[in-house]
């Protein structure tokens, strides 16, 4: 009786196509937004804002990007962290050297990343399945190499570029709270845009391609156009997230922060969160970001002093184990668990 | 010209060792249709275990113990990971092996530590000279070992009864089941063979580069070999390994200085992408005909 779908009559086409047709969903989302914007900053301290919430939101955004590609369009990408790196360096150069306003730098970084993603998406027209998955690794290695060897961008091998102090219209963004709001200002619109994207024509075309590409082609969906759009948009989200994480969290762009492990982590977020689900990207992003912190706290609470290398191994163990467990038990991830919970809550506390 | 051939032959030797890892991928793909991303981590695990066992056992016993461990691992993987995932889409199994890779890394490094270790099996790295060409003795031994392993595997798959059964399984799971080939046993055997290949690769690469985390990344160098040759072709893996080894060595030495070096990391991928554009299933891979 807690989750109620009754009383929704959908008298017009608009109501039927609404983003949240059920009032409870709508109010729930509004409640979460209100909590994120007003309540969290009141309750959270600087550590929570700066070291947990910001990476959680940014990585969720990147995972959302990957989810468009993998979860909706069915094209596996193992090189997504490289697109984040492109976005990060582009945003830094736009902001630091050409004095482009901060928000436009971040979006510009996303656009450049999208262009690069489009280039690496072209092979998807001819190459499929595993062959494509492996060839997306090319993106990871080529981009890593270019970024480290192109002195104009990164200053050479092992180059790190510090972020200049952030300002929007002369107003400095220096505290974790302000950075948190900056991240929210970008993540919320992009998420809403993404949610609408996958409900629309493009998202439906992607899902058709994912389910069976030949059938999709036969009913008139252009494979090339839609696959390319998936790579472009996916890389755009990754690029914006890369820029954000560099400005708001790392404080310096370093290629090591975008290595292949990060690509696998993004993939893990998508799998654990739920493939083909916007909510799942956030659940997965939160899960993977919080997991190491949680393990650390848990070990400390039990009074077991863990060495850092053992902790890293434990991280790997749990991360790998979780991917396998989720694939076996719940292939649609945390998002499906949430669905199941909603089903249960519809009847609870009555048996039927 | 002598220098060109030295670089070329050096590349071929490394290429054979890439083939060795690519072979592990091919074997599992051929007989179960699973793209095993954990092959590199199995290599790392085998090398770590070997170094660990070498502390207590002599060499032959250590190798035997590691061999047993890899076979045991194959049985466990089959029972815990693969069996519940039967009849799932191939990409799901692929992602499960990515998870398995992390798991194996965690186990290996958790038991034997993360610090780099040396692995000495009594091969010297002193180059010798044939008609003015300098050839590394170690590379030659590695190439010989890999080459003989490949021959044994080809014989096993083409001639032996078990090998035939495995090929039948790879052709069609259900048809193989219907003529009485136990599917799960076939899978366990394949993973055990892949584990043995991983052990050989671990010995060769481990004694060359030292045993540490980066060993598992060698698999990433073997992937372009794999897709270049075709994921289900043993000869393809060998030939593509030679091509990739020679090409990346030549590119690094002759092209590298102009662009700043280090192009080995991605040159094989570009090569593979280029070939895949014309042959989407690699040079020798079976073309998949899709129907609605």
Order of helices and strands of chain A: HHHHHHHEEEHHHHEHHHH
Which percent band covers the strand fraction of chain B? under 5%
Task: Give the fraction of residues assigned to helices of chain B.
Answer: over 70%
- For this structure, what is the CATH class of chain B? Mainly Alpha
CATH topology of chain A: ABC transporter involved in vitamin B12 uptake, BtuC
Q: Judging from the principal axes of the Cα atoms, what is the shape of chain B?
A: globular
Beta-strand residue percentage of chain A: under 5%
- Biggest sheet of chain A, strands in spatial order? 1-4
Oligomer: heterodimer
Q: What is the correct CATH architecture of chain B?
A: Orthogonal Bundle
Assigned CATH class of chain A: Mainly Alpha
The number of distinct structural domains of chain B comes to 1
Radius of gyration of chain A: 21 Å
Low-confidence residue ranges of chain A: none
Total beta strand runs of chain B: 2
In short, what is this structure?
Chain A is mainly alpha-helical. Chain A has helices at residues 13-16, 23-43, 46-72, 80-98, 102-121, 129-149, 151-154, 176-199, 201-211, 213-218, 223-250, 260-273, 278-302, 308-329, 333-347; strands spanning 160-162, 166-168, 171-173, 252-254.
How would you describe this protein?
The complex is a heterodimer of chains A (352) and B (292). With 352 residues, chain A is mainly α. Chain A has a single domain, classed as ABC transporter involved in vitamin B12 uptake, BtuC. Chain A contains 15 helices and four strands. Chain A has helices at residues 13-16, 23-43, 46-72, 80-98, 102-121, 129-149, 151-154, 176-199, 201-211, 213-218, 223-250, 260-273, 278-302, 308-329, 333-347; strands at residues 160-162, 166-168, 171-173, 252-254. Chain A is globular, with a radius of gyration of 21 Å. The mean pLDDT of chain A is 86. Chain B has 292 residues and is mainly alpha-helical. Chain B has one domain: Orthogonal Bundle (ABC transporter involved in vitamin B12 uptake, BtuC). The termini of chain B are far apart. The relative contact order of chain B is 0.19.
